[in-house]
Amino acid sequence: MPAPYGGGTPRDPVRDTVAHEGILRRQCARESAARTYARALPIVPVRARGLTIEGADGRRYLDCLSGAGTLALGHNHPVVLEAIRKVLDSGAPLHVLDLATPVKDAFTTELFHTLPPGLADRARIQFCGPAGTDAVEAALKLVRTATGRSGLLSFAGAYHGMTAGALEASGGAQDVRVTRLPYPQDYRCPFGIGGPRGAELAARWTESLLDDTKSGVPQPAGMILEPVQGEGGVIPAPDAWLRRMRAVTEHRSIPLVVDEVQTGVGRTGAFWAVEHSGVVPDVMVLSKAIGGSLPLAVIVYRDDLDVWPPGAHAGTFRGNQLAMAAGAATLSYVRENALAERAATLGARMLDQLRRLSDEFACVGEVRGRGLMIGVELVDPDGAVPAPTAVELDDDPLLAGPAPLPAAPQLAAAVRDACLHRGLIVELGGRHSSVVRLLPPLTITDEQAAAIVDRLADALAAVARTRRHES
User: Fold this and answer.
1) What is the CATH number of domain 80-336?
2) Which candidate, 244, 13, 297, places its Cα nearest to that of 129?
3) Which H helix or E strand runs over 286?
4) Over the stretch 28-78, which tens digit does the pLDDT of each residue have?
5) CATH architecture of structural domain 13-69+339-470
6) Sign of the C-alpha dihedral, residues 127, 129, 132, 136?
7) Do residues 136 and 313 lie in contact, with contact meaning Cβ atoms separated by under 8 Å?
8) Which pLDDT value is given to residue 173?
9) In this model, does residue 4 exceed pLDDT 50?
10) Which residue in 118, 266, 405, 411 is deepest, having the highest Cβ count within 10 Å?
11) Strand runs (DSSP E) across 99-204, as ranges?
12) How many CA atoms lie within 13 A of 335 on its CB side?
């Protein structure tokens, strides 16, 4: 029999269940009310490898949360563990502030090797605090220092972190310095149109706001955007629109900051999501997967923006040697094994399979994503459809589009719980928390991908049956 998590004696299911429940009970009594994942996922992970997590109660799960997209290679990948052991065995210091070390040099060299050529040729790197939100703060401070301006352009539905400045850019706090712009999407287009015409209107809105002297929006310090909005509901930016935003900012001397915290390192089917559109940003914000599962965050930016004085942005834990070693190993493995290309192929297959569910289940409003960053939006099939607008009645087929059904957050939560019951860990996102999100490791096999789709489909079927019986 397998050994339990706490020792070498055979597993006792009753004892393991008691230990599992005790840990959860103590967490509830001791930890902050702000905890999130622990509320939705009442599990106690004790072992993990690749896609699989084992709980203290002996149950096994397929993990499609992946540390909120942090685990590009899944849990405890051999190359990551070997890189960490090598540093530990070498006697190298683990805490070095911003001093130069061979480990940092190797990480920086590998990272620069992966960057879009137009940026890598003239880039500078700033090591920030351990989280992506720290890097966002650094990016905002950088462009404000370089331009001498304070305003910022961001987009509705964005998520850039939980610190004050990042929340302002995300729409989680009100700040007069931040102007929020429409982010194009098909299913819930802010103009009720979707498609290329909706993206065109979103771009024109941005241009008009910047060029209208009476708009109340002075020239900003920068524009920050996600190539795929993750927490916003897995909404990929149209490539043409992203190129338009690059042209808009370049023409007006506005630095373009691209947040690749969740989309980077192969997740979307390209090493960096901006590569789909060929856009070269002025600043890239990087975290999550670049640390190979350990805390690491950096910004990479054009050398002409490097105007801040020494100490303008610092952080005690910006010299995490273990994270740099794990990150270099991860970047190298993804690059050498063409995992971005693998994510594109496998993600397209999973999206195709999941889109068939919309024919089977009326509660599936839209399936969308890019690579292995996938979202399934759940809706209320009995909800009232908004009345057609003047735009929807227009004879121009480009302006015609069906109104989306109301979001169904309670239904999405039920599907998430049903997935967990079937051994599949997913999370929710979107404006109304009605989007089931899948962020599996880039290393999953075809068989594992099929199992993920099957378990999600089974969960949807179970929730649909319960809903029919209750109505």
Assistant:
1) 3.40.640.10
2) 297
3) strand 283-286
4) 999 999 888 889 999 999 999 999 999 999 999 999 999 999 999 999 999
5) Alpha-Beta Complex (3.90)
6) negative
7) no
8) 56
9) no
10) 266
11) 123-127, 152-155, 178-181
12) 14
Residues in the chain, how many?
A: 471
Q: Which residues pair with 154 in a beta bridge?
A: 180
Output the CA–CA distances (angstroms, integers) from residue 165 to 168, 172, 293, 314, 392, in the order listed. Answer: 5, 10, 25, 16, 38
State the chain's maximal CA–CA distance in angstroms: 74
Per-residue pLDDT band for 9 (boundaries 50, 70, 90) equals low
Cβ neighbours of 354 (radius 10 Å): 23
| No. of helices (H) and no. of strands (E), the chain | 15, 17
Closest CA to 116 of 258, 268, 316, 281: 281
Q: Which H or E run contains 88?
A: helix 78-90
- What band does 7 get if pLDDT is binned at 50, 70 and 90? very low
SS3 sequence of 218-259: CCCCEEEECCEECCCCCEECCHHHHHHHHHHHHHCCCCEEEE
| Tokens matching residue 129 | 């605090």
Give the pTM.
0.91
Residue showing tokens 């995300």: 170
Q: How far is CA 346 from CA 76, 129, 349, 436, 446, in A?
A: 22, 34, 5, 18, 8
Looking at residue 276, its amino acid is H
Where exactly are the structural domains of the chain?
13-69+339-470, 80-336
The region that residue 69 occupies, defined by phi over 0 for left and psi between -120 and 50 for alpha, beta otherwise, is left
Sheet holding 152-155, edge to edge: 123-127, 298-302, 283-286, 256-259, 222-225, 152-155, 178-181
Residue 75 per-residue DSSP state: B
CA distance 86 to 152: 43
Residue 75 phi, psi (nearest 5): -75, 135
CA 163 to chain centroid, in Å, comes to 17
- φ, ψ of residue 236 to 5 degrees: the values are -70, 135
Tokens of 272: 């960096």
Phi/psi of residue 254, nearest 5 degrees: -110, 120
Angstrom distance (rounded) from CA 400 to CA 127? 48
Amino acid symbol at 167: L
Q: Which of 410, 347, 340 is nearest to 375 (CA)?
A: 347
